[in-house]
Automatic annotation (TrEMBL):
Species assigned in the record: Streptomyces showdoensis
Entries under PANTHER family matching the protein: FI18310P1-RELATED (PTHR24276:SF98), POLYSERASE-RELATED (PTHR24276)
Family: Belongs to the peptidase S1 family.
GO molecular function: serine-type endopeptidase activity
Protein name: Serine protease
Length: 272
């Protein structure tokens, strides 16, 4: 599919989707069974990964998880704007009676870590759901997380952004491309790809166009390892720095259709 769904990452991560119905245009990743390659991840090794949760809207089976997020300051979580939109939430974020961030917990069936209420949401006013450009927003937490949970955000020119750099994407999203959501945190090793790889895959025309100024291209050149639905909003990390947020792509894990991430080095740091 050519548009983002508010879902989580999965495991091949097939990472992605939570809230929105599958898009008609999206080639089901399951069709070629390529969403593989993820592995269990320990939250203690990646304390900056959080789950966005509303049991009221998404049900309690998976603790209400519907997207990922990243701790960028003790009370600030960066996530995808499309996770906070009406399509995902059925209304405005502040209308959710129980919007929380779950930190320090790997298993959505578990009790560890903390659940913290979201006190405020800010959605990038330049986010455009037709172009997927500027897909980020910031949550303000009611209580502070430990400073040790915070990850540094890559600045423009950081070598972590160079094509060929190994990167890890994290989430609780779809591990198969067919709606098999993870119960425990997973990660998948991908690499930063040249903008040209995503410009080729997503030239625009009938679908959404890739834009290298606000988006980052990453994937597995051989296919198989990728984010998927439910992983949206979660982190892509290279050299210990946050370089991207899971945003969109066509299917999951297809070599010819890399994952598209929000380029966080283009987010003004004063936003968080
Ligand atoms: C989604 O639907 C989604 N393979 C997220 C990431 C990717 C595809 C779809 C990238 O949220």
């Amino acid at each position: 599919m050519r548009r983002p769904l508010a879902r989580a990452l999965t495991g091949a991560l097939g990472l992605i989707a939570a809230a929105a119905p599958p898009l008609a245009a999206a080639a089901p990743a399951a069709a070629d069974s390529v969403v593989v390659g993820g592995q269990p991840a320990r939250i203690t090794d990646a304390p900056w990964v959080v789950a966005l949760s509303s049991r009221d809207r998404f049900g309690g089976t998976r603790a209400g998880q519907f997207c990922g997020g990243v701790v960028v300051a003790p009370t600030k979580v960066l996530t995808a704007a499309h996770c906070l939109g009406r399509e995902a939430l059925g209304g405005e974020p502040w209308q959710l009676p129980d919007f929380k961030v779950i930190a320090g917990r790997s298993s959505l069936r578990g009790q560890g870590g903390q659940e913290i209420r979201v006190a405020g949401t800010w959605v990038n006013p330049d986010y455009d759901s037709r172009t997927n450009s500027g897909d980020f927003g910031v949550l303000t937490l009611e209580e502070a997380l430990p400073a040790s949970y915070v990850i540094a955000v890559a600045a423009p020119g950081d070598p972590a952004l160079d094509p060929g750099t190994a990167a890890d994407v994290y989430g609780w999203g779809d591990t198969t491309g067919s709606g098999t959501y993870a119960m425990s945190l997973r990660s998948a090793r991908v690499q930063v790809l040249p903008d040209a790889a995503c410009e080729r895959a997503y030239p625009g025309g009938t679908g959404v166009a890739y834009r290298g100024d606000t988006m980052l291209c990453a994937g597995d050149p051989e296919g198989g390892r990728d984010a998927c639905q439910g992983d949206s909003g979660g982190p892509l990390v290279a050299r210990g720095r946050l370089i991207g947020l899971v945003s969109w792509g066509s299917g999951c894990g297809q070599a010819e259709n890399p994952g598209v991430y929000t380029r966080v080095s283009a987010v003004p740091p004063q936003r968080f």
